[in-house]
Structure formats: C-alpha cells, structure tokens
C-alpha cells in the first residue's frame, strides 16, 4: 500500500473545492471503493448515490438532433504530478482552454489517467482511460473520457512523461509544447449521460461525455503508468445505471 494521501488533490475533483475531505481513500484493502461510503460522512454518496460513475455503457438511445462539442484547448498544460491516486496534468487557469456544449463554456481544470478503464462499453474494458475535467462558471463539471487501447505510441504522452517525477506530490512544470488534440480521438462520436465523480466524495450532477473511438498508446507507455501505481489498478468498479439514459451522439 502506498503512503497515505490526504485527499487534497482528489482525482476528478477540482483541487481546491474538496480540500476539507481529509479522510484517506484508495483502491485496495480497507479503503477500497466498496468502503468509500463508510469512510466519512462526506463520502456517503459513494454508497447511497443513484447516479454514480463509472458505468457499463449499453442500451443507448440515438439522439435525433446534433449536439456538437467544440473543444478549444489552446493553452499548454501547467504541470504534472503523481497525487497518490493518479498521474494528473493540471491546466493553466485560462479562458482559452475550453469545451463548449450547447452554448455553455466549460474550462479545462486538469486531466488524469485510470488503468484499466473505469467506464466500459458493452462490457469491453480498455487498458487505460483519460479524464479531461472541465468546469463552467458555476462549478458544474463536464468530464470528457477517452479510452486508450494498445497500439502506436502517443507522442504527447512521451512529452508529458519527460517532465514527470514518480515521487508522490512532486509537481513538475511541463516544458514541452503539448498538442492536447492528440490525446483525443479524431472521430468524435460520443456517449452522454449524467453521473458522478468516480472518486470520493462521489458528487453527482457531472456531465459525462465518453468518446466511442479510442486513441492508442504503446504497451510501454501504458506500463509507465502502471509502474507508478505499483501495478495496482486505480479504477472504481462500474456502478448501477438505475434507469439513467445514455444518449449516443
Ligand atoms: Zn477520473
């Protein structure tokens, strides 16, 4: 078990908004996902929530009208850190890093990695999943999820990793120019549903966009992340869908 991390940089959450959640959680043993709801009053939704993430995506409904998502990640990322739960790349606080959905702007806060994937598609699990966490002016979250499969190496990953230090909470500035569009699929059909943070406090009301098409990374690149995690997984198991509708766009 890795050294305890006190929840200051929780995956899928803005770093500041959940700074008071100081109860340790993890993916193995007594603090693993099935125990999260009992670890703290603030984590109750992890056990009682009805709109929890991740899910197995199946039985989707086709949208009759188009909802194009405009992604404009113009600024280079700020820094990269292993926060004890995941490798996280923090974005610059900028109006130029945004996702526009139905006229609403969501600004990129950070992106991070899960291995294996958290969401599954028709039961298929991928070796890795990237979560791009975006927030609008009211703090509502939209997460863009990108599946990764084994294949060609991804040049952006190599550039990010150049600055990475595996020691916990050793935040390092990004020194390369990163083309974030190369961490997104070129074909951008997606599934859309309402869910939650996949980490404590499991807050709901998160807009999830999961791209149908994966990107690729090499086996070596995927293993770089697995090695940082001591070859232990950092995915929450899939949760009950509870009648939620998944729209296919
Ligand atoms: Zn995540």
Features:
249 residues; mainly beta; Carbonic Anhydrase II; 13-stranded mixed β-sheet; two-stranded parallel sheet; 4 helices; 15 strands; globular; disordered N terminus; binds zinc ion
Sum this structure up briefly.
Helix content is 10%, strand content 30%. It is globular.
CATH fold label: Carbonic Anhydrase II
CATH homology group: Alpha carbonic anhydrase
Major β-sheet profile: 13 strands, mixed
Helix percentage range: 10-25%
The Rg value, from CA coordinates, equals 17 Å
Q: Say how many strands there are.
A: 15
- Taking all residues together, what is the mean pLDDT? 91
How many domains? 1
- Per CATH, the architecture is Roll
Could you tell me the strand content as a percent range? 25-35%
- Low-pLDDT regions: 1-11, 13-20
Bound molecules: zinc ion
Structural class: mainly beta
CATH level-1 class = Alpha Beta
How does the overall form come out from the CA principal axes? globular
Summarize the helices and strands and which ones pair or pack.
Layout: H1 36-39, H2 45-48, E1 56-57, E2 61-62, E3 69-73, E4 79-82, E5 87-90, E6 97-101, E7 104-114, E8 120-121, E9 128-135, E10 141-150, H3 155-162, E11 172-173, E12 190-196, E13 204-211, E14 215-217, H4 219-228, E15 247-248
This protein binds zinc ion.
């Amino acid at each position: 078990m890795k050294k305890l991390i006190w929840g200051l940089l929780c995956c899928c959450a803005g770093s500041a908004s959940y700074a008071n959640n100081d109860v340790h959680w993890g993916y193995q043993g007594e603090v693993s996902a099935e125990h999260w709801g009992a670890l703290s009053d603030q984590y109750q939704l992890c056990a009682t929530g009805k709109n929890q993430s991740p899910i197995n995506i199946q039985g989707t409904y086709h949208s009759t009208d188009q909802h194009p998502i405009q992604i404009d990640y113009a600024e280079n990322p700020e820094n990269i850190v292993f926060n004890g739960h995941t490798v996280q790349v923090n974005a610059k606080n900028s109006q130029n890093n945004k996702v526009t959905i139905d006229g609403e702007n969501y600004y990129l806060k950070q992106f991070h990695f899960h291995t294996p994937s958290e969401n599954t598609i028709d039961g298929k699990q991928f070796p890795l999943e990237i979560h791009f966490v975006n927030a609008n002016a009211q703090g509502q979250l939209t997460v863009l999820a990108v599946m990764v499969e084994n294949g060609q190496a991804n040049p952006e990953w190599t550039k990010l990793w150049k600055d990475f230090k595996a020691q916990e909470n050793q935040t390092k500035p990004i020194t390369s120019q990163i083309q974030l569009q190369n961490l997104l699929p070129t074909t951008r059909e997606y599934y859309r549903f309402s869910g939650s943070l996949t980490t404590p406090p499991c807050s709901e009301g998160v807009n999830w966009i999961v791209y149908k098409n994966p990107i690729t990374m090499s086996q070596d690149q995927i293993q770089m992340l697995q090695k940082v995690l001591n070859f232990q997984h950092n995915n929450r198991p899939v949760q009950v869908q509870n009648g939620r509708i998944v729209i296919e766009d």
